[in-house]
Amino acid sequence: MSKYTVTPWRGQRDLLKVRKHLYDLDESNIDMRRHAVDQIMAWKLRGNLPHAVESTALLIDAILHQDTDNSIFSIRAVYSAAFCRFVTGFCDIGRHKERTLEPSSMLEIAKQIDMPVYFVALRHEATHEELPGIQRLVKATREALDWLWKVYWSRLEEPEDLEAVKAALPAFKDEAATVLRNFRRSRREALRKNVQRSPEQLEELASTCNACIGLCDGKQAKIEALAEVLVEQRLILPSNRQLSSSLEGAYLLWDGFLQDVSSRQHGFVEALVRNMLGCLTNNSMAGTQSDVEREAFAVWLLHVLDEDGFLIAEGRRQSVLVMVMRWCCLHPGHWTQYVGQELLRNSEAELRADWEDLLNASVLKAGEATAHGETREMPEGGREESMNVPLQVRDEQVEHATVNWMKATGPMSTPLGVVR
Amino acid sequence: MAQKRKAREAFGDSKGQLSAFAAAKLARQSAVTSSPVLSEVDVVPDRDGLATAVATEPYDGRHSRASTPAASPSNEEIAEVTVTPRKPAVTTRCSTWQPDQQNVSRDEDGCLELALQHDETATFIGEYDVEVLSGIVTIYGTVLQPNSGLQRVYAPSTHALPQIQARQPNTALRLSSATSGLRKLEKLSPLFRNIWASQSTSRRSFTFLATTDDDASHRSLNVLEIDRDADAVLRTLSAKTSVELRKPRIMAVGAKSSGKSTFNRVMCNHLYSWTQAKKCLYLDLDPGQPEFGPPGRLSLVEVAAPVLSPPFAHPASTRSRSFRMVRSHTIAATTFRDDSEHYKACALDLARYVDKQYPLIVNSCGWVSGLGAAMLTDLAHDLSISDIVVLEPLDSRLIEALRSPSSDLVLHRIPRRTPRPSFRTPAESRAMQMMAYFHHKPSPVDGNLRWSSKAISKMRPWVVSYAGPDPGVSAVASYGQGPNPEFLAEVLDGSIVAIVVLNEPKAQQRPPSPSATGEEKDPDNLANHIARTSESLPYLKPNNHGINLTVPPQTSRCLALALIRGIDTVRKQIHLVTPLPESEAAALMQQKVVLVRGVFDPPEWAYYEDLYKGDGSIDAGERPWISKKGMVGIEGAVWRLRHPPMAAAVGANR
């Protein structure tokens, strides 16, 4: 079981970029080491910087320092300081991890972590005797960087190649659609014969779930695509449905499958909900038959959000609800209003307090500004727009006084560090 | 998970948690014999693995990192890792009172009424309101009578539990359940988990404890005891306050965890009960563990109510009548090591606002050697301390130095007491205090504080412009080391800053200085030191020696701390989450605001809140600064045996 950890970098990619710069892996001939070292020093201020990263930056800073016309002493001093901190840190952390009453000596720790023992000797010399000569320091620094590459940098996990995943998506979708259609066919058959709880049917349900989850392979893009197939190809809608007729049949067909996948695959419900929301606000669907579909998706959406089986963890359900409410407010339309109002009607006081006024206001706003229309990907409307206004009318002092400290209007749905 | 348990079982509890190093050592030692441990050699990572595990660790003196949430969404697994019931080492008697049919007159869901005989004591864990119906009791050094009204007590397992002691025959009490919301923070962080009354055994928010063994969760608990020596000092000082015209200025001096803050708290309560004014001033100068606010802040607080809770449960505010914030500064760090001059300037500025008709209690740092000792000596002199309470053991040279400057300074000694195990490391205590601070709701003028269990990420931020002709933020100041300006925005994002307000009115419109000589003409005007990053973020430039400027405490004050939720570089706005009341934050529009960053602890607790609450996972879109462990390659089984937060501290005392 893996656990989370806090890093000073936003994402693994940033760390890999720094690695490229530090070890000069770039094809270009521009020396980016200074930039990378400054970057790492900034990370140091954020906290939680691995000692290997810090050590690498310090050692490279010492190398860069040698390039200028500094005094011999200062060059020796910077090399020594960087090297000492590198060695001392590794040994101290090792000793701390040891948690024994009689801590091992630095030398013993170095042996345990396979650090060349002369690193420890050199540190000793630099601390207690004369500063070592430049030649030795340069050599030791190069070897230290090699060692750090071996124990840390070379072991960084490369994030998956997004391009490759993207390229594989169409094929993935076809495959998923086939599996799902087969499942629907056999499920319908079973319902007709009223044997949907037979062992064979349960077996089929389980194997379809496994097949889909296997296909997704834990990749977020594929999980999105699976949800997209279900919604885009209208797999979860009954064919030839009339306006406002029941969806019970569809629930019977799909609930078991959807709930199972939801509970096992993180992000699936969210993707499903997003896709349904997309349909609700897709303007090209205006027209009789499409509106029947939009109504069906609205009802489905409420079913997904309502049913306990889909979102077991209360916290997760809350965050999906916030996402839906936000969407409904920012994309005012008949069906988003319907979904928003229904959700508020059945929800806790806190959600109502947060959203009721906004939702009602969004209808008015849509009435005023029809030019915006209902696009599928509309920039975040309401609140940001109103905050934008004063920036546009920069010369009017009065306007400014009211906006330089202002409380955000809507509740937040992005994680910390993400503005939108 | 399975492997983890296996390792734990194999190594057994008696040895405490083994690190990979110790395990490797053990494995080597037992290589000849065939002990059961040998079978676990396979979980010991290879040598490169050891090195890599060391390599990923930060080297910053904060080794014990707060426990991290499990990547798996299941709550049980988090609980399994963090809540390890442990038998308390010693059983302590907490109460002489025992419930029976005669002395419990009411026993309902939310309420308990009890009768105590003279000198009987009763101890409760949890949060409760206590009201004396007849007679007199003492709790936490304060006296409660029927006219004292309802008093809120927070008694979590992390701190010594206060005892209620009857001081008259036939004393009757009513305890009632309290719901401040503080308990709900356990949903957001394991630091707050399992510290209140066990809910499985009690329908109330508090539980009676006859002995520490009574605890259903088997936690190690301590009882707050005021021994005879301490009591004598408290009485002497209270008497002095009542009698003398010149009110005493008291500073307790002692090493870390010598019971300094507990003494100060009890001193407050004693003064509250035994002096006429029912007020004292509290000069909070311990930036690592302040009594009345978040870490990194120094403040002067007017205390007009008994202090019956640990620091995280009573932040001071300008509107509170009980703990009123008179004035506050920040050093943007949990120690004054990096800039002792600025620290002292802040302390002395706060001291100028002390109302001399009330006694003063100075909460000093537990740093009693080197620079810390020199600072204590300086402060004792500069703050005109009249009484120093020495919590032994203390370096005799420091005692001499404290005594020497003024002859009428009185030393009181409290002999060494057996140290209590602390259940949270200092870093964990700071995290709890910071987290509780950010979750407390703007305090009502009267009545009790409440806390919100909404995750930080869901709180509505303040949107503050940092560019344009009338920005909401004039500058960002870095105390201590600052980043290369190119990376300032990156360092700020998701970090904690202090909101500092300058005295100078905003309307002041100076003509822009025509040349670079402007700096020389008016070096005190901060405006001359402001530069902008490529994102137009204004920041205070370091001086010619590369040293960062601090905002002078005489002409500024710290209003609150804030978490930078995000920076919108397109609209040039900073999104800030702060517990500052809405009216006070809105008033900032008219003022010059500097955001001060420094070496506040990184707010890891804030990043984890969503995950602990079960709000989606890291896979569902971007979640900055959080990654799954093991990104660096190895995932050695023994390494990942994470310890419950308090294990290190408790293990050491076993």
Fold blueprint:
The complex is a heterodimer of chains A (420) and B (654).
Chain A: E1 4-6, H1 12-22, H2 33-46, H3 51-66, H4 72-98, H5 106-112, H6 117-128, H7 134-151, H8 162-192, H9 199-216, H10 220-232, H11 248-264, H12 268-280, H13 288-306, H14 314-330, H15 334-345, H16 349-368, H17 382-392, H18 397-401, E2 405-407
Chain B: H1 2-11, H2 20-29, H3 47-55, H4 75-82, E1 104-107, E2 111-116, E3 121-134, E4 137-139, E5 142-144, E6 151-155, E7 163-166, E8 171-177, E9 206-209, H5 228-243, E10 249-253, H6 260-274, E11 280-284, E12 297-303, E13 323-330, H7 340-351, E14 360-363, H8 370-382, E15 387-391, H9 396-403, E16 410-414, H10 426-439, E17 462-465, E18 475-478, H11 488-492, E19 496-505, H12 518-521, E20 530-532, E21 538-540, E22 556-568, E23 573-577, H13 582-586, E24 591-597, H14 604-613, E25 626-628, H15 647-653
Parallel strand pairs in B: 10-14, 10-15, 11-14, 15-16, 18-24
Antiparallel strand pairs in B: 1-2, 2-8, 3-6, 3-7, 3-8, 3-9, 4-5, 4-7, 11-12, 12-13, 17-23, 19-22, 19-24, 20-21, 22-23
Protein name (chain A): rRNA-processing protein las1
Organism (chain A): Vermiconidia calcicola
Protein name (chain B): Polynucleotide 5'-hydroxyl-kinase grc3
